[in-house]
Amino acid sequence: MPGKQPGAQRRRRWAPKVKTGCLTCRSRRVKCDENRPSCTRCTSARRRCEGYDRNPWSTSAAAFHRQPTNGMTPIYAQATPQEKHLFHVFCAETAGQVSAGFDSTFWSVDVPQACQLHPAIWHSALAIASAQMTQMTWTMGGSSTQHHDDVGFKQYTKAIGHLVQATQKTDPSFDEQSLILMATVLLLGFASLRGNFNQVQFFARHGLELFAKWDFGERAKRQQQSLRSNVLSVRSLISLLDNLFVQYSWACPAANPPKHAQSSPATTSPKTPFTNITEAYHEYQALQIAHLEALRAQALGSTNGDWQPFRDIRQAWLRRLSACKAKLLQARREGGHESKSWLMLQVGLLGLQVCFQGKAIANELYWDKLIPKLRRIVDIAEQVFERPKTHAERVPAAVFHFAPSPLGILYMVASACREYATRTRAIALLRRMQQRDGLLDSGLFACLSEAKMRIEATGRDLVGLTEPKRCTCIPEEYVCGHHRVRDVGIEFLERGLVRLNFESFDGGARPEGMKSLTVHCNGNWCKR
Q1: In DSSP terms, which residues pair with 486 in a beta bridge?
Q2: 99 in Cβ contact with 437 (< 8 Å)
Q3: C-beta separation of 386 from 429 below 8 A
Q4: Which part of the chain is the Zn(2)-C6 fungal-type domain (predicted)?
């Protein structure tokens, strides 16, 4: 080549070393915005985002020894090329999405290994991967999603068959129970992705009934030393079931949820600081279960007049909450953890504190004392979900994950807060998020919240007043106690219909004070 001296070596253009971000941006040595499941830098340039590597500081050495080798198990060896491709999609993309930054080792190592050991988990995971591909095709303007729908439903049907066969065993081992519960959770995820909340409710109840029947949580406590060889992390699996129980208790109170004992490995919070997000996540889930225990003790005290058990549980829970908040703050300060996952836990802890302080059966004015905390919840949630807009932006498909979610907390703000600006901000977030988490759906919550605001604004016909009651509402600023409404529960009906049951605060629990409103959910948005 002209001008090139003999023996001269070509110098590589300098680029900074990139140690964080998705695998694609790291290989290209460019800054990544670390948006999940696919970073915006890749998707905006129409590049394939290869996802994120496991966080080394939250991954134990034992987990790597359990990592499966593709092709070494009969299930993988007998799989079709299409199934192997779906399994690759699940490992490379779906696992990162459903974990949402929490319990990444469980989803990137444990679950893929369990897939190759139990056919029900294998086909359930493939069904979820296919459903995710359906969403990606729709979001990117693909011509048709029917193919992925058909493939996903075929895998779902196979998973159901294997799950039924597995549950017929009279005395399954603890390892087998773990795999059956995991398959049930994955099938619930597939039903939620498809927007079939009747099936979601069925799988939630089925899994919780098995959890209670097998006394799984207590058995895990007794066998902690012998569980190291278990395929799945038992604590992670229990956290998944804890989350389902919290959702089921709220969404289906009339269905008499199965008894769910306190299932955390320890009855009190460890005093050592959090070393990673997974430890904080497990403690948060245990706090949610303990909160339900306190509510049950409160209900029992109102019945028998013995309030001492509730007072004891309340004080213990408040101490545990305070310790968890302090450890979370310390971990963020020392480690510089400002990721969305840590902020999400902060939202969750604030929401738990508000729920515990709020008195659902008290005068509605009590919630006004909590408005500063409700504002703070929305402020942090906006930081978590703030994202750049593009010219070609369209309504995104609903994203499903098995992780701490702000959906229920934002719905509480949109329902309980009487400050108009804060409520509308919470509803706007729910509309924009388009996310699902088990029995929770952001679009459905946004629709229900807007319906309640319309009822309170123009609800004189639905919540009539008799003398000497008088309305003192101020439009778009203040709702009087007579027209303030609260939801009593929701019912999932057929064909995407959802019924919201509500009552006015001054209506008490009288049947004549109960009203209902039916909304329609078509999978991505709702309408009255």
Answers
A1: 503
A2: no
A3: no
A4: 21-49
List the chain domain ranges: 11-53, 54-250
For residue 213, give both structure tokens: 């029947």
Bond into 468 cis (ω within 30): yes
**pLDDT confidence of 182, banded at 50, 70, 90?**
very high
Confidence of residue 1 (pLDDT cuts 50, 70, 90): very low
Tokens for 109? 């190592």
Contact 236, 220 (CB under 8 A): no
pLDDT over threshold 60, residue 374 = yes
CA distance 225 to 52: 32
Q: Tell me: cis bond preceding 37? Omega within 30 of 0 counts.
A: yes
Burial class of residue 208 in the structure, from the number of CB atoms within 10 Å of its CB (0-12 exposed, 13-18 middle, 19+ buried): buried
Taking the alpha carbons at both ends of the chain, their separation in whole angstroms is 73
Question: At 259, which amino acid appears?
Answer: K
Query: Tokens 């919630």 map to which residue?
Result: 367
Task: Compute the mean pLDDT over every residue in the chain, rounded to the nearest whole number.
Answer: 77
Residue 215 region, left (φ>0) first, then alpha (ψ -120 to 50), else beta?
left
Give the CATH fold of the 11-53 domain.
CD2-Gal4 (4.10.240)
Instruction: Give the sheet arrangement for strand 440-441, strand by strand.
Output: 399-400, 435-437, 440-441
Q: Which has the closest alpha carbon to 242: 214, 224, 225, 217? A: 217
For CA atoms 200, 204, 210, 211, the dihedral sign is positive
3-class DSSP state of 318: helix
Nearest to 250 by CA among 207, 184, 204: 204
Give dist(CA 43, CA 362) in Å, integer.
Answer: 49
pLDDT of 55 reads: 37
| Element at 184 (helix H, strand E) | helix 174-193
pLDDT in the model for residue 59: 36
Q: Identify any residues that bridge with 142 across adjacent strands, giving them in sequence order.
A: none
Most confident of 29-33, 84-88, 144-148, 437-441: 84-88
Distance CA 323, CA 329 (A): 10
Burial class (CB in 10 A: 0-12, 13-18, 19+), 118: buried
Which token pair is 224? 């902690």
Cα→Cα distances 327→322, 337, 506, Å: 9, 12, 41
184-235, pLDDT tens digit by residue? 999 999 998 887 888 888 999 999 999 999 999 888 877 764 555 578 888 8
**pTM for this model (two decimals):** 0.77
330 or 459: which leads in pLDDT: 330
Whole-number Å distance between alpha carbons of 106 and 95: 9
Q: Each residue of 86-129: pLDDT tens digit?
A: 999 999 888 888 888 888 889 988 999 999 989 999 999 999 99
Instruction: Mention every residue, 6+ apart, whose C-beta is less than 8 A from residue 31.
Output: 18, 21, 25, 41
